[in-house]
Amino acid sequence: MTNPQTPTDTVITLSSVTKRFGATTALNGVSIEVERGEIVVLLGLSGSGKSTLLRHVDGLEQPTDGSIKVLGENVAGLSGRPLRTLRSKVGFIFQQFELVPSLSVLENVLTGALATLRGPRLGLWSYGRANKLAALGHLDRVGLLDRAYQRADTLSGGQQQRVAIARALMQNPEILLADEPVASLDPESSDQVMALIREIALDRGLTVLCSLHQVDLALSWADRIVGLRHGEVVLDTPTVGLTKAQVMEIYGRVATTTSELQAIEAELLVGSIPDSAR
Amino acid sequence: MSTATRTSAVRRAGSRSGAREPSGPQTPPGSAAVRAPRRRISPERVAAALTLVALLAASIVALNSIGIDPAKMARSWSNAERFFGRVGAITFPEPGELLYFTALTVGLVICGTLLAAVISVPVAYLAASNTTPGNGWRAFARFFGVLTRSIPDVVFAMVFVLIFSLGALPGILAIGIHSIGMISKMFADAIEQIDEGPRLAIRAGGGSKLQEFTAGVLPQVMPSWVATVLHRNDINLRGSVILGYIGVVGLGMQMSFAFKSLDYGLGLGYAVVIFVLCVAMEVVSSAVRAAMLGIQPTGRGLGDRMLRGLRRIRPGSERLGVQAAAASPAAMLRRPWNGERVRNTVWGWIAAAVVVGSILICDIQWGDFITVWAKVPEIAAQFWPPSFGSYDASAMFEAMGETISIALAATLLTVIVSIVVGSLAARNVAPTRGVRAGMRLLLVVVRGIPEIILAIVLIVISGLGTQAGTIALAIGGVGLLGKLLADSFEEVKAGPERALTAAGASRLQVYAGATVPQGLRAMIGHTFYMIDCNIRSATLLGIVGAGGVGYYLLNASQGSHYGIVTAIVLMILVTVLLVEGLAIWMRRVFR
Ligand SMILES: Nc1ncnc2c1ncn2[C@@H]1O[C@H](COP(=O)(O)OP(=O)(O)OP(=O)(O)O)[C@@H](O)[C@H]1O
Ligand SMILES: [Mg+2]
Question: Residues in domain ABC transporter (chain A) (predicted)?
Fold first, then answer.
């Protein structure tokens, strides 16, 4: 608000973004604003466009219509080095972790620094001592320092996701995007990972945009929930004082058919079972 | 991605429940013959089937015309006895010389293969659908690969021998260029099979295209690439023999000198050495491949499946609270020397030593690379325009026809023998473990035999030409086709076999009713690959006196009639490309 270059402290702005894949409309006039330091959860059924939306924020997908501003830059207009610089300020955590299986944990973390390096890198030694030290620090932060030299595919799922978090930290990001980061983890590791992401975000004042399936988890974890349905925003509200019943009710109101409502209940309530079982 | 996994999970669950409660077939009234749907036959399939039949007929005719009959072979055996009586014992060169030429041959082949591997990296990058910058680049890279593969290395060697005169360089360059075709194709296939996720993650982190490749693609394809290079190195060692006949240094050249000076004992001695060397190389490289795959599971191999199983059994130790004492980041800067690192380092140094040794022994005249350019235009002018010189065009076409006949006849023989041997070498077909092990061993040994050496030995011993060449090709082919068939039989789904066994079918009925039908497509594919290989090899057989167009090729090059060389190369090129096109078409139709 004080700096004329960045008139507000809004770090992500989507203005009526539409994305079509052939006949499918994945996003339909989506407008969202995310403030610096906010922790926002995207809720929605399978196919509602969560992943597509997140990919747009990182410039991995170009919108058919509308505009996207991230950290004051117009993402759609960027390419080459400026785009890569922007991407480096945005960490991305994937559902399937997406580590390079045959590389060591440390080298996987180091790939987060590639945007700051020029030219190809092969092997640990090529990243330099300072980067290695930083990467080991991030591994320490996620509690996997002792695994640094192990092959990434010898770790458990929860450990791999923590390595992926360390890789994102290696980018020194301002924004953290996470696409169903715990969907392929067991309840225990998934609690660990979600807690870790929140802790780190609060520590470093990161802005987080994370897609999830579980309403319960979203309510306890996020500052704000954005609900997607068929590529449209049907819900955008702070979580303070919000109950699960209210969320379900909103989804119920926008569901057009009973079968759709059942699907919503099935999908969104499934996520709550491990929580209530605990 | 999650959508995909979820739907496939649902589908899997669905099919499982479907298996549990089989719904009885619906039986509406009416005679079965009336209700049975007409089988739809596409004209393309008919055409392809007819082509197959025509090829089979042509192969039988070819086999007949070449006239391989056992009686004649038996008669030529007495020929062999007389031969050995005349020649006396096999003699070997003195140890020092032998060692030097062996090292030189191996070094030259390794240098050539490595050169091809290095050039193949960018070619594969352009040719793979997921890394190529554009379809134009892709088409160009593929064409380049096919071209280098279709021109025999002998032809490249002829050209380079002219340019570089002496030394190992012509051989290295000939092997290096000719091998690009196969290596780049297999490299590109490996790139296309990677998991795109890690690469996407690197892109999302701001990595450039080149960084995506080095950090996300290379580590994934490395094991498969190394296996490809080792495999090609074996092939090149076997092929290097014939390069000796046109002036590339090494064991092949020594052997050709010995035969030319009618010192058959020494020539056969060299042949034995080359044979042993090829088998030894085959054993070493398969050991290296196995060791390497043990260290770096590909995700598909048996070792990997076992590893994954172990991981599942062992619970996450950290979850049980037995976190090893983690030192500080600074203390962890040094990578600990565990068994794996020691092993990798030792292997790395051995590999480096082999490469350096190879380059040193080849004694490459690097200066040549600067001076030769002046000669290029003049030599290029000698090769153009193509002409048949003093030969009749019809004689040339006849020779090409003979080459094709040899290839087809050899393929037919190979297929017949390979179906028997390959089946018996397949785990699910072999009657006992012993039979399978014996057949697999036989295949490894046969694969190690260089066809050319076999042809040379057969020609020298039996006095026959074309027949000897055909038999040599046929035997050599069994090593490859037998293995490919055995592998495809082992890969068929076990369900149908079990179902037939459960229904009381005999072993042979299971084989004919379940194993062969499932493996048929692969069989056709491999057979075409065999024809492809045999046409290439058959063009070279003439160089050692086994009939076909190779004889004219050697003559033309020795008589400096390079226009004729070009003409013959064009004929070979057209034939090989035709066969390749046919193979692609067959694979598509019978998919
Ligand atoms: N590259 C693509 N090509 C074609 N269609 C696509 C592509 N990516 C996404 N879609 C479609 O866009 C829609 C939204 O997909 P998206 O992956 O964003 O959903 P999601 O909310 O992330 O679902 P899930 O919870 O299953 O991950 C779907 O209908 C999907 O089929
Ligand atoms: Mg998704």
Answer: 12-255
